[in-house]
Each structure stands twice: as structure tokens, then as C-alpha cells.
């Protein structure tokens, strides 16, 4: 088992990539704090893990709320005594709204979930990792954080920020035995599309202009294997890296 007795927090674990990561981590021996805004979904994931003989606890959390993030990490400490791995997976789309049409409300909502929540979770675990002189942070970014038009202005900016934060933390905290990497998925079959409501026609047309070049959509389980690699000793010398996982879409 690659993660035997490790304690891992996974946000957005109620479905999609977060669920796949939580299930795989537990299968590989981790004690998982599965966090999600949807109580029913995340409890179902925990029940599935336990039925398969794994260890997991459900925490309902809205990553846009600092108190929820504080509680999420505190539960991990109470239940399992420490934290070894943090997977920041939770995120939302932005209706493909271009810069000319983006509202402060939309901008702040996307940033609070996709970027500020990531920063706060990292901020909360860093003292734990520094004391242990070890720890792994994995941020689920997007090819939208590497290129200019895979979504609207807010989502694109939020994921670029996550990648910048990833590299900053990787370098500045490497001396403490802390690693921070990111995954940049392309098209993956998840329910993040459910966060899209009345997409902006202009923005969506621009963002989808390269969709015809996408060879295939991935499965959440395919992203989970990358998260396993980054969370395990197999990637001990990998730090500050963004792994693109898009089936070759952005290679054209």
C-alpha cells in the first residue's frame, strides 16, 4: 500500500475527481477525511470506503468559508491525530463569462472557492507539516490555469492563481520537507458542469473554439492515479510541478 497509515484530506470528495481520489487513497491505506458541501454525497463516499474495509470520515464544508476549513482540519487532527496529505480538489466553473460581463459577485464567488479556499486550507496545514518536517499538498488546477481561454475570465484567473501559489509554496517550504504540486486536467467526466448556469454565449463560443481538438475526455479515476503518485513516496523528488492530464488536447 502506497499510503499506509497516512492521513489525507480531500476536498470536493462527494463526487467526480474528489470521490475517485478519496476512494483510491483509502484503498492504498490512507485514513481519509472526505470533505464536501453536499452532506449526502460525501457520506455515501465514506460509506463506500468503509464497506471496502477502508478508513474515512465525512466532513461537510463549504471551502469558501474559513470556519469550515478550520473545522475540516481540526476534525482530521481529532480523528486521526495529524495530517500528511492535503488535496485541494473542490472548485466551480464561471458560466464562461468574459471580462466585459463579469460581475463582482461572480468574480468573488469563483475566487473564494477556487483560490482563497485553497490558500486557507494550505495555510491551516502548513504549521502541522512544518512541525513534522514533512507533508504533501496537491492542488487540482486545470488546463484553464495554463492557457487563456478554456473558461471565462474568473475561472481562468482563479486557476492561474492556484498554479502560481503551488509553485510559490513548493519553493519556499521545500526546506521543511513539504512538497506542493498541481494537476491540470483537461476534459474529465465529472459533474462540475452542474455549476454552469446560463452560460455567456460569447464567452462559451470563445472557450469552446478549441474543443474539436480534444481527443477524448478522461475519467475521474485517471486523475486519481496521478494524485496517488503525487501523494506517495514515488514522487519524493517532484516539487512545484504541474502535471497536465488532458489526453493530449493541449499538445496540438
Order of helices and strands: EHEHEHEHEHEHHE
Rg, alpha carbons: 17 Å
Sheet bearing the most strands, described? Answer: 7 strands, parallel
Indicate the overall shape. globular
Short recap of the structure:
The protein has helices at 16-27, 39-51, 66-80, 104-132, 153-172, 201-207, 220-231; strands spanning 7-10, 31-36, 55-60, 85-88, 135-140, 178-185, 242-245.
Question: Would you mind describing this structure in some detail?
Answer:
With 252 residues, the protein is of the alpha/beta class. The protein has a single domain, classed as Rossmann fold (3-Layer(aba) Sandwich). It is built from seven helices and seven strands. It has helices at residues 16-27, 39-51, 66-80, 104-132, 153-172, 201-207, 220-231; strands spanning 7-10, 31-36, 55-60, 85-88, 135-140, 178-185, 242-245. The chain has a seven-stranded parallel β-sheet with strand order 3-2-1-4-5-6-7, sandwiched between helices. Helix 5 links the parallel strand 5 and strand 6. The longest helix is centred in the middle third of the chain and has 29 residues, at 104-132. The chain is globular. This is 3-ketoacyl-ACP reductase. GO terms for molecular function: oxidoreductase activity. InterPro entries: NAD(P)-bd_dom_sf, Sc_DH/Rdtase_CS, SDR_fam. Belongs to the short-chain dehydrogenases/reductases (SDR) family. Keywords: Oxidoreductase.
